[in-house]
Design a protein that fits this description.
By secondary structure, this protein is α/β, with parallel strands linked by helices. Helix content is 43%, strand content 18%. It has 3 domains: 9-210, Alpha-Beta Barrel (TIM Barrel), CATH 3.20.20; 307-479, TIM Barrel (Alpha-Beta Barrel); 545-635, Sulfite Reductase Hemoprotein, domain 1, CATH 3.30.413. The protein is built from 20 helices and 22 strands. Bound molecules: iron/sulfur cluster. The site of iron/sulfur cluster (SF4) has 13 residues, from α19.
């Protein structure tokens, strides 16, 4: 989506040209007024003169008349059901059935001419619902919820279908990844009921107001990537508070991951039915698990999702004299978060003493967190001794492992009174048999502090499968570790996006008591991404949360620069949610659950909010960041 002034034809065309060159396939332009809508003609003409034939979308809020004009010049019109012709004053009131029906009838009458025009011109309509910008009518009846978002969209679909118009695409965006995932899933299910098995309408995916830099990318990857893993989604947009051209490679990487998955999983049923029965697709509920202990660290039960670092290339850690000191320095670099557990692979029996020395060295430099040891079950066939100070044994189990080595693992942990994690490493289709073999061994050798994990192709579906298998075999209370090796691409952004999908999607489904990260990257980088993923999946808050709009032609200040200034001054405020929104038209609604809002309200003017309440109206932009800081300070946050 462009963020230029729509009346500035040349700048808008230049930006669309750059977007198209970067790989963008559809460009959206805001049309806040009739004049802007009329100027879409000039934008289109100049684009075509330059040989750029990218489809155009007009973005409409509050101005049905502008939509009618835009429908003459674009391939698609996006309307927001919450503000197309409905009231949005945050009024709390009861609507009688009759009042509700009357308002809906009035809105439908305003919408019908657009449907007729789009039908006549062969133009598509996106019914683009946003969390936080539902109409007062819908909000009062259904709440600001996925259900409200879906009902709001379906009311507009009813009008389209009454007019025998079907060129409709839907979006259900939210800045909260849980809400976005739930709303899209709910709409998919509702549409499936309506179409009774026939192909349904396409979906446009996005996480709105995702912010910028790593957090914006991670949130987008979690929300969009999770839905693509469900098999939902036909077009996507990544919304970053950055130059829109920088959104394109991020979007391409998210899509690339899913296309790889879809190609590999061809023929396999990817859709919602492969969610374990305990997962509610429409509400986040964390899977219940019993608490186990790794030394003093609780995992599962009511404890937060833990973060573990797996030290790759174990020989280099245990053979070097100063590795413990270097690790301590790395861990100290991650501001505001801590590594809670370490995992190291024991390659052979001889490594046990090296690992014990490494443990002792860690203690000396003050890194007194649990150190667990990972082995291949084959190694346990020999006469292996665990290093002293080992907090848990992680045993890799593959199809080639003998039952003897699996039994041996049970006896070793039983004798040493430490925790055990079974990590299944196999093709998805081989996992059920491996789970059964391990459960058979556990029936012979009862153990209590046990966790499970899986490493297979398609991490999201592997985690779901594992959770479902444990549940089905009456072992659903054991903690699950989501293990992720940040696998081998040179592209750090691609690794981050892949990790966000592989870890974020199960976490949003409520699966996962610990995430264990390793592979390419420095320890501090891996941990930083892990905690950002937990925050993006709304499970652990370790930093300030920013909800900033991507900006568009309505934006009333330099959003990127303002966001950077505010972040610089507030990044120490752990847990505080700050919204930075470009315009007063959509900003207050779409900043959803922010604690404080900084919203453009006119050229050079800003309105500040505490929650949904205005606390300073139309103040000068120069003084607004300081006033915001003072406001946060006065609140005691
Ligand atoms: S909130 Fe931001 S992106 Fe949304 S309409 Fe306003 S300026 Fe544009």
């Amino acid at each position: 989506m462009t963020n230029t002034d729509t009346m500035d034809t040349r700048s808008t065309v230049d930006q669309i040209e750059r977007l198209a060159a970067a790989g963008c396939e559809i460009a959206r332009v805001t049309a806040p007024s009739i004049r802007d809508a009329e100027n879409l003609r000039n934008i289109r003409t100049m684009l075509r003169d330059r040989g750029v034939d990218i489809p155009l979308v007009a973005d409409i809020h509050f101005t049905p008349n502008a939509a009618l004009i835009a429908a003459e010049h674009v391939e698609k019109v996006r309307i927001n059901p919450g503000n197309y012709a409905d009231k949005k004053k945050f009024e709390v009131r009861e609507y009688s059935q009759q009042e509700y029906a009357d308002e809906l009838g009035r809105v439908a009458d305003r919408f019908r001419p657009l449907v007729a025009r789009c039908k006549q011109n062969g133009v598509a309509i996106r019914i683009g619902t946003n969390h936080g910008s539902l109409s007062d009518r819908v909000m009062n009846r259904y709440g600001d919820s996925p259900t409200g978002m879906v009902e709001s969209a379906l009311e507009f679909l009813d009008v389209c279908e009454e007019e025998a118009y079907f060129d409709v695409i839907f979006s259900m965006k939210a800045s909260n990844t849980h809400v976005a995932i739930q709303a899209y899933r709910l709409l998919a299910a509702r549409l499936e009921e309506r179409t009774e098995g026939e192909p349904s309408y396409p979906f446009h995916l996005g996480v709105t107001e995702a912010g910028d830099s790593e957090d914006g990318r991670i949130k987008s990857a979690i929300g969009i990537g999770s839905l693509l893993e469900d098999g939902i989604g036909d077009t996507i947009r990544v919304s970053l508070t950055e130059d829109p051209v920088r959104e394109i490679p991020v979007a391409e990487k998210i899509v690339q991951r899913s296309l790889e998955r879809w190609a590999r999983d061809a023929g396999r049923d990817l859709l919602l039915m492969d969610l374990p029965a305990f997962v509610n697709p429409y509400a986040h509920v964390r899977r219940k698990s019993r608490r186990i202990e790794l030394a003093d660290l609780g995992v599962g039960g009511g404890d937060p999702v833990r973060v573990e670092l797996e030290l790759s290339d174990s020989a280099s850690w245990i053979e070097s004299n100063d590795s413990a000191g270097l690790l301590a320095k790395s861990l100290a670099k991650v501001e505001g978060v801590e590594c809670e557990s370490l995992l190291i692979r024991m390659e052979g029996e001889a490594a046990a003493s090296g690992i014990a020395s490494f443990r002792a060295a860690l203690d000396r430099v003050g890194v007194q967190i649990p150190l667990s040891v990972r082995v291949d079950a084959v190694l346990l066939g020999g006469d292996v001794a665990l290093p002293s100070g080992c907090a848990r044994l992680v045993v890799d189990v593959g199809p080639a492992q003998s039952q003897i080595s699996i039994d041996k693992a049970c006896r070793i942990v039983s004798d040493s009174a430490i925790a055990l994690e079974w990590c299944f490493r196999a093709e998805l289709t081989e996992i059920p048999a491996l789970v059964d073999r391990v459960l058979e061994a556990m029936a012979e050798n009862p153990l209590s502090d046990v966790a499970f994990s899986v490493e297979s192709d398609g991490a999201v579906h592997a985690a779901r499968l594992l959770a479902a298998l444990l549940e089905a075999r009456g072992m659903g209370e054991y903690p699950i570790v989501l293990r992720h090796g940040f696998p081998g691409s040179e592209d750090a952004e691609l690794r981050m996006i892949g990790s966000s999908i592989d870890l974020g999607a199960p976490l949003c489904d409520g699966i996962g008591d610990m995430i264990s990260v390793g592979g390419v990257g420095r320890p501090e980088e891996l941990l930083d991404v892990a905690y950002r993923i937990l925050q993006g999946a709304r499970l652990r808050t370790t930093r300030t949360e920013y909800i900033s709009c991507p900006s568009c032609g309505r934006t009333l200040f330099d959003l990127e620069e303002t966001t950077a200034r505010i972040k610089f001054a507030t990044s120490h405020l752990k847990g505080v949610k700050i919204a930075i929104m470009g315009c007063i038209v959509n900003g207050p609604g779409e900043m959803a659950d922010a604690d404080f809002g900084y919203v453009g309200s006119g050229p050079g003017r800003v309105t500040l909010y505490a929650g949904k309440d205005v606390v300073a109206r139309n103040i000068a932009e120069d003084e607004a960041p300081e006033r915001l800081l003072a406001l946060i300070g006065e609140s005691g946050r």
